[in-house]
Amino acid sequence: MKKINIFLAFLLLGTTACTDLKEEVLDEVNGSAIVADSTNVEMLVAPTYAFLRDLQSRGAGWLAQETCTDEVVFPTRGANWNSADYRTIFTHDYTASNSYIKNTWNSYLIGFARCNVALFYMQKLPQTDKVKQYITEVRFIRTLTMYQLNDCFGQMPFRESSDYDYAKKPQYMNRAQIVERMVSELNEIIPTMKVKGAVPYGRVTKAAAQLLLAKIYLNYQVYTGTAPAFTDGTGKWAETIGLCDDIIAGKSGSYALADDFWKLYLSDNATYSDQTETILPIIYDSKIGIGGIPWVNMTLDYNQAFGTYLTSNLWAGCCTTPTFFNTWTQTDPRFSDNRLKSSTGFNLGFLIGQQYSPAGIALKTKDGGRPLIFTADFSNSNSLEEQGIRVVKYAPNPTTAYPGASENDFQYYRLTDAYLMRAEAKFRNNDVNGALTDINTIRVKRGVAAYALSELTLDKILNERGYEFYWDNCRRNDLIRFNKYCDARYEKTTVTPAYKILFPIPLTAYDADRNMVQNPGYPVFH
């Protein structure tokens, strides 16, 4: 059974999912009394933790940040998935009116606002150890919203949590200012944060804050335009390495690389994740009304019914590209796994070729009765239902009573990331032997051949990140840092102008605040 504690129940207060909780209408006096009562501090914190689920939303962050890469595409299939917003994100023809980019901007700003509201009220409470701990955790979540706004948009309107006069203009931060604030905030809270085991599974820990700071340093050149030192070991690579050193050495809690990669992604993955390498999970449990992205629904074909997943629940949607697929060695255990095949008919990982029912019967398409053979080729603008290699990384529960939503906890940060970030920082800092040790630690743990020193390149490090973190919302950030984001690729035949590394500020943001300025390169607001 999924490991659940009472804190998780409070997360329901920040969701719109159907639950059995009864709504209580509060007048102003009663509402003020509740937020002034320190025994209700979890109610203040809950909406900030609930925001974390937006980081892998199919309508916002995850979709926008994955489908602009070579990992994920939602091709138009006849009358289905027929949206210019899907197509233009994939080809980098996005504009300020794209609905998924708008949703992403709104999501991260709402998350930031939730954190400010929680901090505003918690700072008025008696400063018990419990309240102080929650303040620290919310400050981390707020910094994470800033990280995403900076990474995607390069700017944000900022208010301190104490600034509750919304008639006043906010501060408009650029990338360098956001980075400075994030680094200062994280360096201030990290020494006070709890290590793994000192707070329940699903809560923010010291290692999560250290990993976020390490990511800021790893991307420092992208975010500030100032290249860290490559040779003397005193630049931002050294800061990245030092933070990852602490996490790997267990100074922030006991984490261990998973012996079984796929157990991290099974439907009931909480216990194994907690016992091994998960640093920041995003918790889901459909039994209490918190369901995640319908991973298998949105990628499997209509006719791949299994268990309690009825044909009508499968949508024949997204796939991956030959560009990403061709980076793989198909013998890599992370590429494919058959442990659920007898009950589902398909393997985990990448699905290509003829597809079968759980009984072993070769399936046909719903449209025309052709053999259901998933092919590498597809058309972004006009695909058949069988075109495109499908991906099932977050494994389904074949007997679930909730086939419309996933039950897997999302792997937002893992220990493997600390190893691969450290490997990259060492390589860029000319410590190739150190980088080789880190990347081979992961490869040997995953059951694939170690690299020889002469084989290791930045491209190999990027590929290794793809093998570990595909569909985990890392690809856009990685491609930008490795100077690959703008490259031509399958069904995107032209090189992207460099200004499109940042998404446009949505038109709706300007409608709400006429002081917003569009990112360079995009049509200016009028």
Question: How would you sum up this structure, described in words?
Answer:
The chain folds into 3 domains: 1-192 and 499-526, Serine Threonine Protein Phosphatase 5, Tetratricopeptide repeat (Alpha Horseshoe), CATH 1.25.40.390; 200-283 and 409-495, Alpha Horseshoe (Serine Threonine Protein Phosphatase 5, Tetratricopeptide repeat); 290-403, no CATH class. It contains 19 helices and 9 strands. By secondary structure, the chain is mainly alpha-helical. It is globular and about 65 Å long. Helix 7 runs antiparallel to helix 8 (175-189), helix 15 runs antiparallel to helix 16 and helix 15 packs antiparallel against helix 17 (458-469).
Could you state the order of secondary-structure elements as H and E? HHHHHHHEEHHHHHEHEHEEEEEHHHHH
End-to-end gap:
55 Å
The CATH topology of the largest domain is given as Serine Threonine Protein Phosphatase 5, Tetratricopeptide repeat
Helix proportion range: 25-40%
- Overall geometric form: globular
Number of domains: 3
Order of strands in the sheet with the most strands? 4-5-8
User: Sheet with the most strands?
Assistant: 3 strands, antiparallel
Architecture of the largest domain, according to CATH? Answer: Alpha Horseshoe
Count of DSSP-assigned helices: 19
Structural class: mainly alpha
The mean pLDDT is: 92
Number of beta strands: 9
